[in-house]
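Protocol step 4 of 5: obtain the predicted structure for the target chain.
Materials: sequence only (see below). No template structures provided, no constraints applied. The aim of this step is simply to have a reference model before the mutagenesis design in step 5. Sequence pasted as it appears in the construct record:
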Amino acid sequence: MLKQDKRTLYRPNNNYIQNIMDIHFDPKFGTPYWLEREKRLGVNVRNMVKDLEDFRHFFSFKSLEEQIVYEKDLRKIPLENFIPLKIREDKTRKIWYSQTGGTTGLPKHGCWDSEYWKRVLDFSNEFLDLHQVPYNTNWLFMGPMGPHTTGRLVVDIAENRGGGCFTIDLDPRFVKIAQKEKDLANASERYIQHIWQQAETILKYQNIEVLFATSRLLEMASEYIDLNLFKNIKAIVHAGTSLNAQTNQLIREELFPNVRLIGMYGTSTTGISYQSTDLPSRPYEVVYIPSNPFIHIEIVDEKGKLVNYGELGNLSTYRFTEDYLIPGFWERDKGIRIAPEGQLADHYSWDWIGSVYSPMFSKNEEGDFEVEGVY
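Step 4 output (C-alpha cells):
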C-alpha cells in the first residue's frame, strides 16, 4: 500500500487551480495564446475561476469546431505562444520542446519544463513501485526517440531509479508512411525486423531486467525473436498502442509469464498517466489513473457531458501545469469511465479510464477495432 507521505498525485484543489490561472492569465507575463482567447471570450479568468468547475464553465472548449482550430494552431503557431512568459524568462527552469507522432496529420507541439518533469519522475516512481518494477537495473527502450517525449522520459526514469537505459529508436511516422504507400509495401515489415534484430543483440549481451515497448511489439515478439532471450526480464512497461483485455492476458500468461506488466498512457502534449494494479471486477482490463492535478481526464459524450460509470465516451483532457495549459481537449481516443476500486481507490479517488482505444483505426472482420502499426 502506498504511504501517504509518498504521494505526488491528488485531486486538483482550488489553491492549485488558482495558482495555475494566475500564471497563465497574468496580463503581462502569462500565455499569449490563452490571453487572446480570454479576451475573445470576454472573461477575466483570474477573477472568475476559483475551481475546476469554474474553469470548465468559463473557459474550457465548448465545441468540436473550437478544438479543431486549437489542434491546427498547435501544429502551425510557434510554441512560445503556448508557454507563459514567466516560465520562459525563468533561467532556473529548462523547457523540453516535444512533438506528437503525427498520426492525425502534421505533428502537434508541446512542452515539459524541468519542474513538471521532476513531478513526472516522482509519480512514475509511485506507480512503478506499486507494480514492483525493480531499482538499480538496466532498461531496454524500444520506442520513438528524437522529437518525441517518450524516449527522453524513459531514459530519465531508468536513471532516476539507479539504472541505465539502452535505446532502440523507432520512427512511427515512417511506419505509417510505409503501410500506406504501395511501393513501400515490404518496408514496414523490414523495418519491424530491423527493430527486433537490434533488440536481439542487446538482450544477448547486456544485463537487461526492464523492457519498454509498445503493446503491438510485445504481441508480435514471438514472430521475430526467441523469447528465451527475455529470461532475465522482470518487468515490462508498455505504451503507444491500445491493449485490450484478451491481448493483455495473452502477453501476461503466454508470452511473458511471471513478468510485471504496466501500461503508460498519454501524449507528448498532454503528459502521461499509469495503469492501476489489477482490479477484481475487471480482470485483465487495462485501467489508467489520470495523473491529477497535472493531467485531469474526463469521459464525456458527444455533447461534452460526463457519461455514467461503465459507459464509453470521449477522453476530454485538461492539463494544469505551470508551463502548459490544455482546457478540455478531446483526444482521438475513447475509453470507459471507471469508478476507483481496490487497494488504490482511497489514494487516487478521482475517475479512472479503462479500455482506451483509437476509433481512427480500421475494424477487423469481427467488427472490432484494430491498431495498425507499432506506435
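Step 4 remarks: Residues 11-357 form a domain with the Rossmann fold fold (CATH 3.40.50.12780). Confidence is low (pLDDT under 50) at residues 1-5, 361-375.
Proceed to step 5.
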